[in-house]
Amino acid sequence: MTRQKIFISYGHIDNESMGQNHEGWVSSLHRALEVRLGQLRGKKPDIWRDNHQLRGNNDLTNTIFDAYKELAVLISIMSPRYFSSEWCVREMNTFIEQAQARGELRYRNKCRLFKVIKTPVSLNLHPEPVRDVLGYEFYAEDPETGRMRELSPWSGSSYEQLYWLRVDDLAQDIAQVLDTVEEQERSAEEEKEPEQPEEPVTTKNGAKTIYLAECTYDVKESRETILRGLHQHGYNVLPDKAIPLHEPELSAELRDMLSQADLAVHMIGRNYGLVPEGVNTSLPHLQARMCRDPALGKIIPQLVWMACHESEDERQLAFMDFLRDELAAGSEADLLEGHLEDFKDLVLDRLQRTMPPEPEDIGEEQPVVSIYIVCEKSDLDDIIPLEDYLFDQGFDVVVQLFDGNPAEVRRDHQENLKNLDAVLVYYGTGEELWLRAKLRELQKIGGYGREKPMKAKGVYVAPPMTPRKGRLRTHEAMVLQGGPAFDPSSLKPFVQKLRGGTGS
User: Fold this and answer.
1) Do 158 and 130 meet the contact criterion of CB atoms below 8 Å apart?
2) How many Å apart are CA 307 and CA 320, to the nearest integer?
3) Are 121 and 186 found together in one domain?
4) Residue that finishes a domain, picked among 197, 220, 238
5) pLDDT at position 203, please?
6) pLDDT bracket for residue 371 (50, 70, 90)
7) Rounded Cα–Cα distance for residues 423 and 430 (Å)
8) Quick check: 34 and 44 in contact, CB under 8 A?
9) CATH number of the domain that 281 lies in?
10) 193 plus 207 within the same structural domain
11) Which of 6-10, 57-61, 236-240, 453-457 has the least mean pLDDT?
12) Residues 390 and 351 reside in one and the same domain
């Protein structure tokens, strides 16, 4: 019979209710996992735990440990009480020993022991065979006090939302292990040949492995958002275990993981971060620097996201300058300092750039050239004459959207910059800072996954006219002075360039 049972090991005090209207923390997690795993796998999971009041009964002890032979997964609710309990430690160690004896502690690099960390505990307390296994932290730092706050379904506000995200992450990974166990045992029953070593995870997009750099605590939730998106698309993500924090093991481990990576992603916060033993730079700084280590024998494309522009730590400010000057300037690196959702889209788009190009149908008519008009919402009425003129000239015209879900609007904007043939920025009621932001987007347009240059990029200067507007100059786009009223002749250089001319 296929092993599908899940056992929750916990200290009794960690399930005591803190209020009359709340069930125990472990009981709540048990119930949540039953629901979510049932939704993910289409059948009710077999999750059980003892009530901790009968411990010491030899018959119960033997029953529990005999049942380990049927276990697919052990969930250890780790806390200070868990590691001070002889019984809890015995449950965990017995499962590890039995699984190791059968060579089944890990399936396809996924450990069958899931570490749910309810309260922070020293890594040194974790059993050595699973010390490198990444845990699921059910706590978060309070930004006002710096204290760690426990996540629960009744913690309210953002902490409650984080709790349900952690539950979903845990359920998704447990479902993956259960599916793997079921698949392998079914194969064994059918007397198939032993499974060959697993190849690196790939997707229809041709991506293989992403190194998602360890980060400081202030951007940890953002990193987990990116991690979920990568997992949902089936990408293989490193590190997949805890990394050593002292030399020379640290550098050796980083080189090994980076040598497997097709892309490195860095999330940079305001804090400098932990400085490992034996080095003089923080872990985020070291990871970014090692991506360019000649010993890797290759150049790893990098994507960098900065959550903020300021820091109180001079070391972090210097690190940010290093990233801007050294990495963002390279052809194999892109830097984004905008919204997290924009960066998430950028990462997924970059991974999809490995897709082979679609074969072109011979004999098809040449596609119509498409122009993307970027403007302020207040300019939508004023661009109508310009939009109509370009359409009458035989071009497809797409105007920037403003209404709808903000994430979907941003995604549509990026897709247009990525795919359309030309862009025309309508500089009307927008402030100068707005224009600068749009020009920076054009500079980073390759980061959205664009593989071929645009046919033309232009800035159409429209009312209200100012002396500053009249002197506008940029090497990033063709400047078209429109004057106080729309004049089609002002678009002539832009249209000429789209039709294959040189423009001016």
Assistant:
1) no
2) 11
3) yes
4) 197
5) 41
6) very high
7) 17
8) yes
9) 3.40.50.360
10) no
11) 57-61
12) no
